[in-house]
């Protein structure tokens, strides 16, 4: 049985159709990339999975549990963690306090266990040296790392990464890739939305492309980027050339 199943999920904002009968599934331990032009509905789809957005039709099923009526906190406790395009730390709290809160509220850990979990996540994400700094003082890379750290501290079985490589330099992207690969070795399933397609091509086993709220391609990364439908939605960008670069 798949870990996550989306069944004909649909979402409108007024007259605007944002998600149009999208169906796909994710197995445990999978690392799946999601691409598509701006406005394709990718972040809205994440919101539907995490509970921030309620679909107008269709079902979201996680490990056999229908999620439609569950709020984000309940979904987090079931094992769904996510990051946001624009980092959302508690700016006046330290990095450690941010991660500790995630471990306690999302991961339902208490006392020494929550502190040990937070320390382990800070180590994994390379944030130990800034653990006692207020989150509002962090640079972009560190804020991105903190987004991942807070999500990991909730002990997810499914991690939704929303453009965590955006705005980073090539060496910073490589560092982040190392963190993602490390998380995946523990059996955590990952869906990663990213415009930095080279990062996805170096990490994922499967690529899905969303355009106009519809799923237009799903398969091996090179095959998806070579798909005429994907090339058409990316016309005028350099995304399609990544297919040749990785052949």
Please give the alpha-carbon distance between the first and last residues: 32 Å
Mean pLDDT: 91
Structural class: alpha/beta
Using the CA coordinates, give the radius of gyration: 18 Å
The number of helical runs is: 10
Biggest sheet: strands, sense, closure? 6 strands, mixed
DSSP strand count:
10
Order of helices and strands: EEEHEEHEHHHEHEHEEHHH
Tell me the CATH superfamily of the domain at 4-92 and 158-195 and 203-235.
P-loop containing nucleotide triphosphate hydrolases
The coarse overall form would be: globular
Q: List the uncertain runs.
A: none
Give me the CATH fold name of the domain at 4-92 and 158-195 and 203-235: Rossmann fold
List the helices and strands and how they pair.
Layout: E1 4-13, E2 16-26, E3 31-35, H1 42-50, E4 57-62, E5 65-66, H2 72-78, E6 80-82, H3 95-105, H4 111-124, H5 140-153, E7 158-162, H6 170-184, E8 189-193, H7 197-201, E9 206-211, E10 214-219, H8 221-226, H9 228-233, H10 241-245
Parallel strand pairs: 3-8, 3-9, 6-7, 7-8
Antiparallel strand pairs: 1-2, 1-4, 4-5, 9-10
Helix pairs in contact: 3-4, 3-5, 4-5
Model description:
The protein is of the alpha/beta class. The protein has a domain of about 160 residues: Rossmann fold (3-Layer(aba) Sandwich), CATH 3.40.50. About 35% of the residues lie in helices and about 25% in strands. The protein has 10 helices and 10 strands. The strands form 2 sheets. A 6-stranded mixed beta sheet has the order 6-7-8-3-9-10, sandwiched between helices. Strand 4 and strand 5 form a beta hairpin. It is globular. It starts with a strand and ends with a helix.
């Amino acid at each position: 049985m798949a870990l996550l199943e989306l069944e004909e999920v649909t979402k409108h904002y007024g007259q605007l159709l944002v998600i149009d009968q999208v169906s796909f599934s994710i197995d445990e331990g999978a690392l799946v990339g999601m691409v598509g032009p701006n406005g394709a509905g990718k972040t809205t789809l994440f919101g539907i999975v995490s509970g921030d957005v309620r679909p107008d039709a269709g079902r979201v099923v996680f490990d056999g549990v229908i999620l439609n009526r569950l709020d984000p906190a309940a979904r987090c406790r079931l094992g769904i963690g996510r990051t946001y395009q624009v980092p959302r730390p508690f700016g006046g709290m330290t990095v450690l306090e941010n991660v500790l809160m995630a471990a306690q509220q999302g991961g339902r850990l208490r006392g020494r266990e929550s502190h040990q979990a937070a320390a382990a996540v800070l180590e994994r994400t390379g944030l130990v040296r800034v653990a006692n700094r207020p989150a509002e003082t962090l640079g972009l890379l560190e804020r991105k790392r903190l987004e991942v750290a807070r999500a990991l501290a909730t002990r997810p079985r499914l991690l939704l990464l929303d453009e965590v490589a955006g705005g980073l330099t090539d060496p910073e992207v490589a560092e982040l890739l190392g963190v993602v690969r490390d998380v995946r070795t523990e059996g955590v399933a990952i869906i990663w939305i990213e415009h930095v397609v080279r990062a996805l091509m170096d990490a994922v086993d499967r690529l899905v492309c969303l355009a106009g709220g519809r799923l237009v391609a799903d398969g091996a990364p090179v095959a998806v980027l070579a798909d005429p439908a994907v090339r058409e939605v990316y016309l005028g960008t350099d995304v399609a050339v990544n297919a040749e670069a990785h052949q």
